[in-house]
Specification:
Layout (H helix, E strand, L loop, with lengths): L3 H9 L8 E4 L7 H17 L4 E6 L11 E2 L6 H8 E2 L3 E7 L8 E9 L6 E2 L11 E5 L2 E5 L10 H10 L4 H15 L4 E7 L3 E12 L2 E11 L4 E15 L3 E12 L2 E14 L5 E7 L8 H19 L6 H19 L4 H16 L1 H19 L1
Parallel strand pairs: 1-2
Antiparallel strand pairs: 2-6, 3-6, 4-7, 5-6, 8-9, 10-11, 11-12, 12-13, 13-14, 14-15, 15-16
Helix pairs in contact: 6-7, 6-8, 7-8, 7-9, 8-9
């Protein structure tokens, strides 16, 4: 098994980006430009490495390789994005890699790209790139090329060596378990489970029991062997179940209008462990958003617009309006999920304003965007 933290360190040791790895300070696939650039790099790396993995490391300064981290990103539907826009799409995964020196909630993103051996190309137009475009890596740059160019393997030995040097061992695994439980989460309820005598999953969170069901909030779940953060949230609540072969989390989101709040099952993620030392992850979106009549939604939508206008004009809010502001992100979310497309426009417009005004509401707004992103690519 590969320790992904060691893999990131070994990749960064090469300093300069090349034809099998790229590094980014951050990516933004929520915007058309950011999505297009991400797809271009995925396409180029897949075509430049037809027989081995290629990588994008996210959360690193370009000039000096300083690890600064990015927010935890759990978009399990990123393969759907690649499939939608690329012809002969590669297999792709996004993993969140914790580093001890980073603040809580910050990780390094690791995108792993595996070509299917055929020429990868844009399936359709996006931003300024045209459908049919093919990209390859020339050093650290992703360049357009002719479609009928021959795929060449030139990095297999180098990549195999890097991955071999990142192999895990029992000392790293034990150190990882101890660090997770006794250092990073000593103030939370924590536990671990060994699967198939090889895999160790650790989890921590605040527990509460409702009708014989244990829920976790402020949750952190890691696959210690590979130093991969599987789940992290300071807002939502999850349930955890496991048996000898699998580990399952079910995430819930709290939604509602006014005081009528309710928990809705959102996503189920199951890790299945095999006797041959392999595992696979299955995710299923099980979200059925609440439905309301148009008249009620118009009332809340207009109230949100009034709050937004006051904040933009720097007019002081009343105590009741401050309470209503905390509901603004999820109220807009409910409106959008009930066929109010203009709600998304307002969410994007208010985001920079909210960031300056109230950090707690801003985090809730980011959470609403995460939910929308997952629903969209499902």
């Amino acid at each position: 098994m590969i320790n992904k933290r060691l893999l990131v360190k070994n990749l960064l040791a090469h300093n300069d980006e090349n034809s099998f790895y790229d590094k980014k300070r951050f990516i933004d696939i929520g915007q058309k430009e950011g999505k297009a650039k991400f797809l271009k790099h995925v396409c180029a790396l897949a075509n430049s490495n037809p027989k081995n993995n290629s990588f994008i490391v996210i959360g690193v300064e370009d000039e000096d390789n300083k690890i600064v981290g990015v927010d935890f990103f759990d978009d399990s539907k990123i393969q759907n994005l690649v499939n939608a826009y690329l012809e002969n799409p590669p297999l792709i995964s996004y993993e969140n890699i914790p580093f001890p020196q980073l603040p809580e909630g910050k990780v390094v993103g690791l995108v792993t790209i595996k070509s299917n051996g055929k020429v990868c190309a844009l399936r359709k137009n996006i931003w300024k790139y045209y459908g049919g475009s093919v990209f390859f890596r020339e050093g650290s740059i992703s360049m357009p090329k002719a479609y009928d160019i021959e795929l060449k393997d030139s990095n297999s030995i180098v990549v195999e060596t890097i991955e071999q040097h990142a192999k895990n061992n029992i000392e790293l695994t034990l150190d990882g378990v101890m660090d997770f439980i006794t250092n990073r989460h000593k103030d939370l309820s924590s536990d671990y489970k060994v699967f198939k005598e090889q895999f160790v999953v650790c989890w921590a969170g605040n527990q509460k029991k409702i009708k014989n069901q244990v829920y976790y909030s402020r949750v952190d779940v890691e696959l210690i062997n590979e130093q991969v953060k599987l789940f992290y949230s300071i807002l939502d609540e999850i349930t955890i179940t496991y048996d000898e072969d699998s580990f399952t989390t079910t995430e819930y989101v709290q939604l509602g209008l006014g005081k009528q709040q309710k928990y809705y099952p959102f996503e189920k993620v199951e890790l299945n462990f095999n006797d041959n030392g392999t595992y696979y992850i299955q995710s299923e979106l099980i979200f059925n958003p609440p439905q309301y009549n148009k008249k009620t939604l118009h009332h809340f939508f207009n109230a949100n617009m009034a709050l937004q206008d006051k904040i933009e004009k720097k007019i002081k809010l009343t105590p009741q309006e401050e309470k209503d502001l905390r509901q603004l992100p999820h109220t807009y979310l409910i409106c959008y999920l009930n066929n109010f497309p203009e709600a998304l426009t307002q969410m994007e417009k208010v985001k920079p304003v909210i960031k300056k005004y109230n950090l707690e509401v801003y985090l809730s707004l980011k959470e609403a965007f995460r939910i929308l992103r997952k629903v969209k690519y499902n």
